[in-house]
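Sharing a chain and its predicted structure for anyone who wants a worked example. Both blocks are below, sequence first, tokens second.
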Amino acid sequence: MRRLALLTVSGLLLLSIALAQQPAATPQQNQSQPPRPIPLPHLYPHFLLYQRHLDEAAAQREKQGENGDWLRTGLQKRLGFTDGEFAPVRASSERLSAKIADLNARARAIVAADQQARKQGLIPPGSPPPGLEKLKALDAERNADIDAEIATLNQALSPANAASLQSFSARSSRSR
């Protein structure tokens, strides 16, 4: 028991000496620079998919006899939009969610086929999977769908509401 205590004390002493000999951490030089804003094409899909999730969660709560309105209208109220002003946002969230779900299903099928081919030894080790180019094309299609949906949404909103949504999205991303 005494030997264990001596080993423990010796280990702690060596650890404290080693830590004392390490140079002090220096603050990063770029900490004074503000973070770069996240581009709107990256923010809008998250906002729209989140609104779709909230709409689905509200519907689920209402099926259970609970109030789901606070989920459905939370972002709308924070933006200060009426039901009519928020309708294009909700429609956009439904369209984009459907497109993204379709693209994700297609991507999963490509990945599954590649994984199966690799398991069967049809793809040599270290070589890229045959579906890689298809996945790159799906990614480009996804980006084009997002850009088109953003343009459609901005056209459907009044200029003031489009500016409010952009400002809200930018503020929300900085507060996280």
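Comments welcome. The mean pLDDT is 84.
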